[in-house]
Amino acid sequence: AQKREDRPATAKEVRAALEDIAREQGISSFIPGLRSLSSLSTSTGFMPSPAPYAYGNYQTAQTASSYAPPVASPPPALPIKKRKRSFGGWITAGLVAAALVCVFGSLSTHHSSPSSSPSDPVVVLDKYTLAIGVYGSSSDVADPVRYANAQDQQILSMFYSGLTTVNSKNQIVPGLAQSWDARPSSDGKGLDWTFHLRPHLKFSDGSPLNSSDVAYSIDRVFSSSDNEYAYLAPFFKDGAGRLQGKPQTLIGDSLLTPNPSTLIIKEQGRGVFLPAMMSTYCFLVVKKSLIGDVGYSSPGYLNIDKAGSSGPFMLSDTKSGSVTQLELVPNPSYYGGQPKLKKVLVRFYYSIDNERADYQANNLSIMLGADHQSLTEVETSDQQFAMIAADHYLGMNYLTKPFDNIKIRQAFALALDKPALLKEANQTGLLATNHIIPRKQQAYNESLTGPAGVSSLSGDAVQARKLLQQGMKEEGIQSIAQFPPIALTYYDQGPVCNTDKMNLIQQQWNTKLGINVMLKRDGDANKKINSNANNPQGLQLWCSEWTIDYPDPQNWTTLQFAKDSAWNASNYGQNQSDAAASQQQVQADLLKADTLQDPQQRLKMYQDAEQKLVNDVAWLPIAQDNLVNLVKPNVQGYQTNESGLASPDIMQTLSINM
């Protein structure tokens, strides 16, 4: 603990100290948010990341045209997007935040007391009141443009609505837009999507919600290249230039509002996945007057109050103590009607022990993101276990030796026994996998095999050694002693890439291949992964995670492996290996799949491409992630989709049995 005389004396010093700690902990992406804070009460949230949605049938609300688009041209190189952190990464950040509260003492408006404070908001539950427990801070939940973890996204989806949304069946369904259709753009470079808004839309204060509000909310996402979803800008006409301020706005350019109930989005690249993309939380519609002093050009935290909601609930009250509580009540102007619940209490805890104590004392209806390995017998009976669309994987750079050789890549992949690895790492709740596209996603391929046709998740040690010898011969490597040094770089973040797990991977490779891989723990690993594309001096081998941003297989395939995509950290197809030509054909097939309007043909092309990606070990998938929530038995109808979120249709029908 820091001595009192060493504590920062001013808010400016506090923010500087927070920035230093963020850098040390490998969470420097929080720094822009820290700089916009007016007090320590607005620190970042700390639980799992992702926005994993399953790809759904957007044709349910789309007037399909007979237009057969030509093969799409590659999108521009994408701006760097921050790699998402796992559940364990948010635990780490949460512990850092808890320590900071202790360090900075009275400068903070929240306190990390191990027991309840007399000033804590009192919880009174009845048949119309739901109480949700969240470990972390409440600051980021107000603004969809800010980075949001899964818990933040749950709250955002209650405050706000977007053009489209994902329902409890993981399907894309109408949100503020009741229908949409597409036609080729006049320049032939993209599609013009027309979204028809529902009639008589209103914000929670009764003021009209129209197409200009939607256009404002979308354009705001691209007002800074530092925004979490700035990488989506190149899919909009002139979007890449918008990030540089040229043009200064997409409104009137690629975002047209011919009347209050119609929005036209000029898409670039002819991709048919735009309705799915619009379900991403960053595009939730906010009221311009809520943005506050930070303003239009540099999105910050919303001055949220009961007047600004476009979703099923609105903020009624906030209370603070050692627990921060948001009180949500139904939005009387919500297009979807009124829910059965009359009140939702969202309680943010700085102590996991306090959160569990409140759950055990029946002061919480739901505890989000529980650690399933430390549950009591009663808690175990309450757990809801959900597999979510998130992959833990290893990446290999085709531009560095020896991973420009396909057989050596395959050898490293087949030398891993993934179920045994997860068991020894105490991660048996995760699903060992050979897939890039996660289970339960449309385009998931039940028949997919691992590299070299090996279907077993346990790999094949004999085949691995055989492939290694063949690859070494091709590369002129006479013995293991001459094998190039291998370094596995990772950021120690919870269950995804923790040191114990990396040690186990190292041991398996040493035992089965006789290769001693050096482990390199690096707090800047995520930043280095993001700069690996087309970089022969980049990382050689690394550990990471990807969680789906929007429900379409393009998010797992084209986005990750297309030519010159910023996410193509492995440099698939942009290398000098013997497989480069065939990989470039796969890249072309993916771009074509992005444009196809026949859903079955489109999914089949993605499945074929995924098998080829797996064969060449474009990624080395390890496991699919999971999420555990604790839900009291009297909560009726609660369930989550593959993002780990209770969708708006679930929140509308959820009830309490008292």
Structural features, described:
By secondary structure, this protein is α+β, with helices and mostly antiparallel strands. The chain folds into 2 domains: 4-305 and 632-656, Alpha-Beta Complex (Dipeptide-binding Protein, domain 1), CATH 3.90.76; 388-625, Dipeptide-binding Protein, Domain 3 (Dipeptide-binding Protein, domain 3, Roll), CATH 3.10.105.10. β7 and β8 (262-266) form a beta hairpin. It contains 19 helices and 20 strands. Helix content is 27%, strand content 17%. The longest helix has 18 residues, at 87-104.
Overall body shape: globular
The chain-level mean pLDDT equals: 82
The figure for the number of domains is 2
Alpha-beta classification: alpha+beta
- The beta-strand count equals 20
Amino- and carboxy-terminal Cα gap: 45 Å
* Tally of contiguous helical segments: 19
Low-confidence stretches: 1-17, 19-115, 293-301
CATH superfamily of the largest domain: Dipeptide-binding Protein, Domain 1
- Fraction in beta strands: 15-25%
**CATH first level of the largest domain:** Alpha Beta
Biggest sheet statistics? 11 strands, mixed
- Using the 3D structure, state the CATH architecture of the largest domain: Alpha-Beta Complex
Q: What's the helical proportion of residues?
A: 25-40%
CATH topology name of the largest domain, in short, is Dipeptide-binding Protein, domain 1
Radius of gyration: 25 Å
